[in-house]
């Protein structure tokens, strides 16, 4: 399979307006309901404590179908994604005005080179963390700590929970799997206790949270909010 198939090739299988299928926000191949999407949006707003004056950086924004539901709550938004096709979709369907902008780049490169790093107050990364290696996650968070001086909160959503992996795969009769492959369908699984330790060592206060039990992936995923010390 071609490298980064899930993010660069897979989305092209669907119609240009089949937004949730493009970014795999699905259950057994069927796009999730508006209720599920609203739950995600509410969680983002709560965990980032979004305010009208916030300038938000979205790392791994995909086609921005999800993030677009935040635009009315914030001041400015920049979405970053390495998929040329998904950025194309975002620009076509989800750029209502000049306060919204998209940049084609991988996450690590962007946070390292961004010239406007001090303009952001909040950072969002929903569903993309699992597709970075553990080393890249650490490097990215360290760079956010060092360069993005005005960021008050960082929110990583929908992280696969390593302690739930065995049950997850057994329930699906999958017996061979990797928990450390960012190229796999689900990506890298993290243990909540381990990630708390890692983030504390970088200089953040980490807060673990979970979606309501009725949320479709709550049984095997968790969320992480970071507050700079």
TrEMBL record:
It holds the Pfam family Methyltransf_25. CDD domains: AdoMet_MTases (cd02440). Residues 56-146 form the Methyltransferase domain. This is Methyltransferase domain-containing protein.
């Amino acid at each position: 399979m071609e490298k980064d198939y899930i993010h660069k090739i897979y989305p092209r299988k669907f119609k240009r307006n089949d937004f949730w299928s493009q970014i795999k926000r699905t259950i057994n191949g069927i796009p999730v309901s508006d209720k599920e999407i609203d739950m995600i949006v509410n969680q983002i707003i709560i965990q980032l404590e979004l305010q009208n004056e916030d300038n938000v950086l979205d790392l791994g924004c995909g086609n921005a179908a999800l993030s677009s539901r935040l635009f009315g709550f914030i001041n400015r938004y920049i979405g970053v994604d390495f998929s040329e096709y998904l950025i194309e979709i975002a620009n076509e369907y989800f750029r209502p005005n000049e306060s919204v902008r998209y940049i084609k780049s991988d996450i690590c490169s962007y946070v390292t080179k961004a010239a406007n790093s001090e303009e952001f107050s909040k950072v969002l990364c929903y569903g993309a963390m699992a597709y970075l290696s553990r080393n890249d996650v650490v490097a990215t968070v360290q760079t956010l700590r060092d360069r993005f001086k005005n960021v008050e909160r960082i929110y990583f959503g929908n992280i696969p929970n390593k302690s739930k992996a065995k049950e997850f795969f057994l329930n699906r009769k999958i017996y061979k799997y990797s928990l450390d492959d960012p190229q796999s369908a689900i990506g890298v699984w993290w243990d909540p206790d381990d990630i708390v330790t890692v983030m504390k060592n970088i200089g953040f206060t980490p807060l673990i949270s979970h979606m309501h039990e009725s949320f479709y992936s709550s049984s095997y995923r968790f969320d992480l909010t970071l507050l700079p010390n």
